[in-house]
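Input:
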Amino acid sequence: MASVPSEHDASPKRIPIALKILVAGGFGAGKTTMVSAVSEIRPLQTEERLTGANHTDSTEGVEAKTTTTVTMDFGRITINEDLQLYLFGTPGQDRFWFLWDELAHGALGAVVLADTRRLADCFPSIDYFEQRGTPFIVAVNCFDERRFGIDAISRALDLPAEVPIVEFDARVATGARDVLIELVEYVARRQLAAA
Amino acid sequence: MIRPYALTQGRVAPQDCEFDMVAFVVATPARWDSGIPLQPEHHAIIEASWEPMAVVELASKIDLAIDVVRVLLGDLRRAGLISLYEPPAAYMPHNIDVLKAVVNGLRAL
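Output:
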């Protein structure tokens, strides 16, 4: 289970493996709540690339502003000394798509948080992971007493039958943990089926 | 307040390699005569990475934007002051034993 060194260096230090899990969903769906329920959460500064900007008319000597700093959160779970799990609460707004490709690259999988009051908010995340082939599960954050059946949610989201849908409370550590276990077990099942 | 890319002389990407968010870097001792001028931020990275540290942790710890940290890491790598370990997950399917270990570790939380 050793990491692969990309250069010739006889470092005596053990290098852990880090796995990425994405936590996606619409604004206010509980991404940060979930990440902080299971891990120590920390801020990460990233640069948002303003791809919509038109640079052709920028005056010589005056640089066009093409980036702006945004902060996203991440959390780490130490599984053992060789294995770390990084959780990224992926900003759901369109202007953050640039981050998604990098986060999804090599990711173990994704949890799409669904809020039944605003189910459509998670459509872009589901579309993205389906197109990319990133394994994902849908976790329904139970904010209130209004419960919808899993079947109804599955139909509303037009999900393939094999995609797990679980209900949980993002504020409770064991709830968030169980969602992660569900995801990893789903990824393992997919892996075995493909083998 | 310094504009982020002032630290990198305007460079927005490292010259010769990518640094995955969850790649690990480790400072390599004994090459202080690297010949490149180091800024305080370079030193901060070296100080923070005597133990293996993920790029994303490093950026959070020294409180710089991750792409700025990547440029600085590129400088340090060219100067032989850090080693880079890319995550194997980025280019191989996730090993079933690793997945089992993750599930067991999560259950133990």
